[in-house]
Write a structure and sequence with these properties.
By secondary structure, the chain is α+β, with helices and mostly antiparallel strands. The chain folds into two domains: 81 residues; 132 residues, no CATH class. Helix content is 34%, strand content 18%. The protein has ten helices and ten strands. β7 and β8 form a beta hairpin. The protein is elongated, with a radius of gyration of 24 Å. The N and C termini lie far apart (65 Å).
């Protein structure tokens, strides 16, 4: 039998909130199914504001809409929507444009590219920008590299969403544990946050080798110049 409103009211609300504050977020949320009175208390800002702070600690990307929810004292909604968003890989165009991207080559790109890459020499990774006009900048806001201008687009593949730049093999979109985005192709790695120096984060140095047939086709097309579709 669930506690009645009268029984709930016989215990001070602050005492209930203090008891609930000792529970982890999952158990606080489960209390909502126990009674109508507990459902109301389990959404209280007193509980969810510190839980949200803990959840967001160490995260490099919090969508603005969730920050607005917190300002509106809807921390429970901000918490639940943040968890749902953390696994989203369908990056939005405005997100791609807003980030300052770190960039480095992978060993598979070849020694000629590695020896000239600052990240491999122990320095900070290079920065790149996806500009609103659909081009990529390589140095500051310059959009040309060796006289060529490179266009970008977000494409759908059998392997999920990818970012395609010019005729290079496309980069698969991943999410990191810090909620940042990672773009990875067979030859390059991008992060939507400052890339840790070489040796500081092994999780970003593991080579992704799960190529789809489409990815392999793109590599062959780039290397041979033949369209294989």
């Amino acid at each position: 039998m669930e506690p009645t409103v009268t029984q709930m009211q016989s215990i001070d609300e602050d005492i209930w909130l203090t008891v609930l504050s000792w529970l982890p977020a999952r158990d606080v949320a489960r209390c909502a199914i126990l009674s109508k009175a507990l459902k109301c208390l389990s959404r209280d800002e007193f509980l969810w504001s510190p839980l949200l702070t803990e959840l967001w600690t160490g995260k490099v990307y919090i969508p603005k809409s969730f920050q607005v929810l917190r300002e509106q004292k809807q921390c429970y909604l901000a918490y639940s929507q943040s968890l749902q968003d953390a696994s989203r890989v369908h990056i939005r165009r405005e997100e791609l444009v807003d980030f300052v991207w770190s960039f480095r080559f992978k060993p598979s790109a070849g020694r000629a590219w590695i020896v000239a890459d600052p990240w491999w020499l122990g320095d900070q990774a290079q920065t790149r920008y996806f500009l609103p006009n659909g081009t990529v900048s390589f140095h500051g806001r310059e959009t040309r590299l060796l006289g060529a201008e490179f266009k970008w687009q977000i494409i759908e593949t059998d392997d999920g969403p990818h970012v395609k730049i010019a005729d290079f093999p496309s980069s698969k979109i991943f999410r990191c544990s810090n909620w940042g985005f990672r773009l990875e192709s067979c030859w390059v790695l991008w992060t939507s946050f400052p890339m840790p120096l070489r040796g500081q984060d092994p999780t970003l140095e593991t080579v992704w080798v799960s190529f789809t047939p489409d990815q392999e086709r793109q590599v062959l097309e780039y290397n041979t110049g033949f369209i294989l579709r």
